[in-house]
TrEMBL record:
It comes from the Eukaryota. InterPro entries: FAD/NAD-bd_sf, FAD/NAD-binding_dom, NDH-2, NDH2-like_C. The gene is LOC107954186. Its cofactor is FAD. Alternative NADH-ubiquinone oxidoreductase which catalyzes the oxidation of mitochondrial NADH does not translocate protons across the inner mitochondrial membrane. It holds the Pfam family Pyr_redox_2. It comes from Gossypium hirsutum (Upland cotton). This is NADH:ubiquinone reductase (non-electrogenic). The keyword Nucleotide-binding does not apply.
Length: 494
């Protein structure tokens, strides 16, 4: 019978495969044998990527994966350069929509764009790489970057140190949130700059909602748990407050009816909220936020404690969730570099975004600023500034390589062409409940178009939908907006 013959074949031992399997196993284990390990002295030396040879493609090393670094990598020609990116995250965050992920309007992956999609050569070209690591130092004399791998938690492998030689170096490592030296901010507040910050905000917000529904909880503790405090009245703080108030009115009041009268939002600002916007738009924002239930407080935070913060006038504000959004400042890595600094502590650059005191080093984004000798003001830490700098520098580096100056020290006396010029395209901010602000003036003193209301909200969404990097994420964002409008926000605590 057919099945019986097959059974006999399967039960018959195949002797010829046994030696092959054994040999493969021995070959695999041989890689881990101590006999093949290099001497201890060789292991102690940091490994990495050595200098490129004259006949090789020159290497551009990009430190950072923010707006500036990713726009630069997108514009670089992989036929001209090997591109190496060093960053503690393997994606770019579309920060204008990050506040929407905290309350479930958008999913987290909708605002994260993998670097390999932005510049495919990083995952396919032989000499291009992405390294999940932090930059610890820059040796400008030897054209080297010192790096250290990023590890998760305390039970993982020890960080591995290595070096990368560069022909052109672009520092686009961004900035860190400013705490102004206020005690307790780093320990108790949550910043809103990365996807993991938005995830932490969402988890804590939903946890406080569920804890406050536990029977027997004192009313005072319930009010503290459900008090959400936002410090900083810039676009990020206002947009998060608007999203949070919209979440409370549309979803919390419907699904957490027992605690709906206890939850509220307070926005604390030292000066005026949205100070860069038109006065009429600011008044509209204040009116709309107040109508949505956001309490506006003008004050300066002096101290942050685990369950309350103290203002300079002595008043205490209890909180269950504290979000800190007061601007940015230089990171410790930028401060440690022995490079000239612009006003404010950023890396100083000239009109072509070069660091003028060293060869082949450029800096763009929030970590850089024009030197005083250029006569230009330091540009604001905005996504549109970083994106425009990245686009300009990509075109400049492509031009340098085509003119024969791609390798190290190859562009000393080269004519770089037109310097970088920035023109402000305007500002936008949503305040929740289908309302937004659009200010298209080039400066606060200039004249131009300024809108507020539903039309501005439609412009805001349309503009950001078109600015999302890939069609994949545009589809995700559009579908998230549609499902949220029809079914409400997802309130699962995952």
């Amino acid at each position: 019978m057919f099945w019986y013959r097959n059974l006999i074949k399967l039960s018959t031992p195949i002797k010829s495969k046994t030696p092959i399997t054994k040999n493969l196993l021995q070959a695999s284990l041989s890689h881990f044998s101590t006999a093949n390990q290099p001497p201890a002295s060789a292991q102690a030396q940091p490994s990495g990527l050595g200098p490129t040879k004259p006949h090789d493609k020159p290497r551009v090393v990009v430190l950072g994966s923010g707006w500036a670094g990713c726009r630069l990598m997108k514009g670089l020609d992989p036929k001209l350069y090997d591109i190496v990116c060093v960053s503690p995250r393997n994606h770019m965050v579309f920060t204008p929509l990050l506040a929407s992920t905290c309350v479930g309007t958008l999913e987290f992956r909708s605002v994260a764009e993998p670097i390999a999609r932005i510049q495919p050569s990083i995952s396919s070209a032989p000499g291009s790489y992405f390294f999940l690591a932090n930059s610890t130092a820059v040796d400008t004399e030897n054209h080297e970057v010192h790096c250290e791998t990023v590890t998760d938690g305390t039970d993982t492998l020890d960080p591995w140190k290595f070096k990368i030689s560069y022909d052109k170096l672009v520092i686009a490592s961004g900035a860190q949130a400013s705490t102004f030296g206020i005690h307790g901010v780093k320990e108790h507040a949550i910043f809103l700059r990365e996807v993991h910050h938005a995830q932490e905000i969402r988890r804590k917000l939903l946890l406080n909602l569920m804890l406050s529904d536990v029977p027997g909880l004192p009313e005072e503790e319930k009010r503290r748990l459900l008090h959400c405090v936002v410090v900083g009245g810039g676009p990020t703080g206002v947009e998060f407050s608007g999203e949070l108030s919209d979440f409370i009115r549309r979803d919390v009041h419907e699904r957490y009816t027992h605690v709906k009268d206890y939850i509220h939002v307070t926005l604390i600002e030292a000066n005026e909220i949205l100070s860069s916007f038109d006065d009429r738009l600011r008044r509209y924002a204040i009116k709309h936020l107040t109508k949505s239930g956001v309490r506006l407080v003008r004050g300066i935070v002096k101290d942050v404690k685990p369950e309350n913060l103290v203002l300079t006038d002595g008043s205490e504000v209890p909180y269950g969730l504290l979000v800190w959004s007061t601007g940015v400042g230089p990171s410790p890595f930028v401060n440690s570099l022995g490079l000239p600094k612009s006003p404010g502590g950023r890396i100083g650059v000239d009109e072509w975004l070069r660091v003028p005191t060293v060869q082949d080093v450029f800096s763009i984004g929030d970590c850089s600023g024009f030197l005083e000798s250029t006569g230009k003001p330091v540009l604001p830490a905005l996504a549109q500034v970083a994106e425009r700098q990245g686009k300009y520098l990509a075109n400049l580096l492509n031009k340098i390589c085509k003119d024969g100056g791609g390798h190290a020290n190859g562009a000393k006396d080269m004519n770089l062409g037109d310097p970088f010029e920035y023109k402000h395209l305007g500002s936008m901010a949503t305040v929740g409940r289908f309302k937004a602000l659009v200010d298209l003036r080039q400066s606060k003193e200039a004249k131009g178009i300024s809108l507020a209301g539903f039309v501005s909200w439609f412009i805001w969404r349309s503009a950001y939908l078109t600015r999302v990097v890939s069609w994949r994420n545009r589809f995700y964002v559009a579908m998230n907006w549609l499902t949220t409008f029809v079914f409400g926000r997802d309130i699962s605590r995952i």
